[in-house]
């Protein structure tokens, strides 16, 4: 839970001020029973009305001071806990944003949402609770014991018994509650996960009429959450009544022994009443502690889950920083020469050298085996192969979404492991296989790729991606709001908007991962012609299912079961590559 340390310097001052007001509030509360004992034993016993009024007025004043201190403390407590919660959520969001795919894959997406929301709230509630009992509880508890002992050392022995017993109950409560509340948070994760999956697949669920099945899945997760919560509550519920019972037994003992003392004339009524007040205050404080202990148990379970996100070691963070843009010229030409006829610095050049890759945590055969190829700047390289042959995985190594298991991926002649992932990605634009648009207008979605680009540029690239036609057919044109994930668009329309979003980035390397699969052949042809004009010095990697999509590429790579089955031009592959011939035959129905 080291992550909490970061917030201490920022909030300790307000926290301390809140605690000071809390101390004032506690001192006021502590003084009241003694004042009351004086009113009864001195004022009432001696029928001294002016003493009663004076002390009564003093009690009122002290109560008012206590109330003001409590209000200020409440305001400060809310301010500190809310500000802390907001900052923690924001830091978590930033941390998740920095995570590599390797780290992200370790967490369920729904679990990350629960951690950012519910878990942060639990910690925030605890901090708030802490400012209600921190200092106050021990102060009132110890102060009550001392003041009660001063009033009557004999009766105080009862307190020496009940306080440790109640403290033991609190400790047990904490120990038993922690594991159970951790399980409750996990059950909440599962429930969120079912909900999230349902919402993202709602069309499929409706198309297959499987709502009942999904409903049952949700109900099961919901019941599991309920059972977990009940189990946790049940396991810890015994401790509060047990504490109350212990204290009440103590009060009975005080009444009994005090009553005997009063009867025998050794004891004053006011003292017995003050003693009972102090005992009740102790009970109240211990209850308060118990409430905060419960908050603490949940907060601790939540803080552990939050710290897992912060502690997620990211292999990419530990690698060397970017240095390729500042390389010495001699070094550049040497690296540039390797495997290339052209020397010098080539930002769009891609080299794969004997690359093998397995997804972190996955067992079995590597997804990619001994991949070697080179894309020269400005080349259009097609990539084709059966489904699951590793095409998307291969291109995900270029922006360093994952680190290779062995071999080297070089961009611009420099190993990607020696480059800062963020700077590297600045130079690459990807149109992913699964199109993703964000809530906002067409214009916002396209300019999302490059904030600096103006509206005319956005329209220019939309035309290039064959998106301008259908965008302008909407009454509000580029200002039409695209629903969440582009829900109000067809698959092909979404693909074209995401192509425009990539083009506006003006990258050194453009990766198009099967992004015209939902576009008709004629439109695809026009996009490709436009891309040729656009490409210039841009290296374009084009993954496709249709051979016609890659046939005119400068170079084609054929993937088969994680390895390269052949590479070269269309004609060369038709002559030499069996896998390519098979794809060609299956698609065109003619012999190669
Ligand atoms: N995040 C992941 N974790 C573990 N394995 C994965 C992951 N993503 C893909 N795989 C596996 O890697 C292999 C290659 O998948 P990949 O998506 O790269 O293939 P592809 O050639 O792009 O397929 P398609 O043409 O269907 O998109 C598959 O066997 C797949 O199961």
UniProtKB/TrEMBL annotation:
Chief place where the protein resides: membrane
SUPFAM superfamilies reported in the protein's UniProt record: ABC transporter transmembrane region (SSF90123), P-loop containing nucleoside triphosphate hydrolases (SSF52540)
Biased composition (Basic and acidic residues): 320-330
Entry's Gene Ontology molecular function annotations: ABC-type oligopeptide transporter activity; ATP binding; ATP hydrolysis activity
Domain of life according to the entry: Bacteria
Ranges where the ABC transporter domain occurs: 350-586
Compartments it resides in: Cell membrane
Keyword terms, alphabetized: ATP-binding, Cell membrane, Membrane, Nucleotide-binding, Transmembrane, Transmembrane helix, Transport
Domain (ABC transmembrane type-1) ranges: 17-298
Region (Disordered) residue spans: 315-340
Topology versus the membrane: Multi-pass membrane protein
GO cellular component: plasma membrane
Pfam families found in the cross-reference section: ABC_membrane, ABC_tran
TM region(s), chain numbering: 52-72, 133-151, 157-176, 238-258, 278-297
Name the UniProt record assigns to this protein: ABC transporter
Lineage, broadest ranks: Bacteria, Bacillati, Bacillota, Bacilli, Bacillales
